[in-house]
Specification:
The protein is an all-alpha fold. Helices cover about 65% and strands about 0% of the residues. Strands 1-2 form a two-stranded antiparallel ribbon. It is globular.
């Protein structure tokens, strides 16, 4: 490896082939379902199986990436199997704002059941304006962008998992907003490992969309110092102060508290996994998740000194805060899926990056490594942040 070629020599074709085979097998396993699956799932499985069979004879690395991309797109076009009223409430809250009202501090009859508040950041009120009549299009667009970025990157396993995992597919079209949150978090963290101040500003935008993105802030401060914290606070003021002045902190806090209190039964959480039925009150479970999240956040601030620590540590804070309590949802996984899938091949030590004609990824990363190198390392490799 030389300074002139920071990525090192291109991986040997046999290594690429093995990684492609692994990715296709993983995608095929993820598509296996019981009962009567949607036709697009069966068709996707057949196409992936055929691609795998042909790739055993011929080198189809680029073709396999295209197939995984098309499968991911096809799975997301069909009607989702789940339902969330998050976008329904967001649409109602946005229309309330456009009519001069307060989107916070009260419930909305449009939710199922009626009465759920708008419990998201002010950026979410603006994000869906281009497609307010059907805000789900923005979630689909975010999913397509993530798929495209992963395909362009050319790391097969991460793309396969994002393309075919049922939870990620459903979350892209079930009415939740976590796919967009995942895109914003991905962009913020990719920027943060090279340009921490820019990353801090982008992370503030992600928090202004959905506050759980705050999980990566302690690690960012530990990783890059006080400067990113100051930028984060200044950018957050741009997003939050107008809303606080216009609608008051009381109404916003009410919405967040009420949203947390709506869930009478545990779901997709530690309480759910342990079969809790109220013998331990929800408040105790929530104290556990918040306490665990705060403890991990402090450890992130104290210990994180690398890009790996920033990404993995923040993900642990996110997971503890959202899944160790009374109620959670699989859709939250879509928020961490992009950044995890982006790095997964590197973290597992897999070679086999699929290079596109002209290798634009190598050209861009070579320039970036010289102009704005990654701060620290990711899993022992200075190249894994790509």
């Amino acid at each position: 490896m030389t300074p002139e070629d920071p990525q090192g020599p291109a991986p040997e074709a046999p290594t690429t082939d093995r990684v492609v085979w692994l990715a296709l097998i993983v995608a095929l396993v993820l598509l296996l379902q019981t009962g009567t699956p949607p036709r697009v799932v069966v068709l996707s499985a057949i196409v992936i199986a055929a691609t795998l069979a042909f790739s055993l004879k011929w080198r189809l690395a680029g073709g396999a990436i295209v197939v995984l991309l098309l499968v991911g797109l096809g799975l997301r076009i069909v009607p989702p199997t789940g339902f969330s009223d998050v976008l329904t409430v967001t649409e109602a809250a946005t229309r309330e704002m456009l009519a001069g009202g307060n989107p916070y501090g009260h419930g909305f009859e449009e939710s199922i059941p009626p009465g759920a508040p708008f419990a998201y950041g002010p950026l979410a009120l603006l994000w869906y304006l281009p497609s307010l009549a059907d805000p789900g299009r923005m979630e689909l667009l975010a999913s397509v962008v993530v798929l495209g970025l992963l395909a362009l990157r050319g790391r097969p396993l991460g793309l396969a998992i994002y393309a075919a995992t049922p939870a990620f597919v459903v979350a892209s079209g079930d009415g939740s907003n976590d796919t967009t949150a995942g895109l914003l978090i991905l962009i913020a963290l990719l920027a943060a490992v090279r340009l921490p101040l820019l990353g801090a500003a982008l992370l503030a935008a992600a928090v202004a969309f959905k506050p759980y993105a705050l999980a990566w802030l302690p690690g960012l401060v530990g990783f890059a110092g006080i400067g990113p914290l100051l930028v984060f606070l200044a950018t957050s003021a741009v997003f939050w102060l107008p809303a606080l002045v216009a609608w008051g902190p009381g109404s916003m806090l009410w919405s967040y508290r009420e949203a947390d209190a709506l869930h009478s039964r545990p779901y997709y959480s530690l309480a759910y996994g342990l079969g809790s039925s109220g013998d331990v009150p929800p408040a105790a479970w929530n104290a556990l998740r918040i306490g665990a999240g705060v403890a991990l956040a402090v450890l992130n601030f104290v210990l994180v000194r690398s890009a790996a620590g920033l990404i993995i540590g923040g993900t642990l804070v996110f997971a503890a805060t959202l899944f160790l309590g009374w109620w959670s949802t699989f859709a939250y996984l879509a928020a961490v899926a992009p950044i995890v899938c982006w790095h997964l091949d590197d973290w597992l030590g897999l070679g086999g990056r699929v290079a596109w004609p002209g290798d634009p990824v190598r050209r861009v990363t070579t320039w970036a490594d010289l102009a704005i190198p990654v701060r620290g390392t990711v899993m022992g490799s200075r190249h894994a942040a790509r």
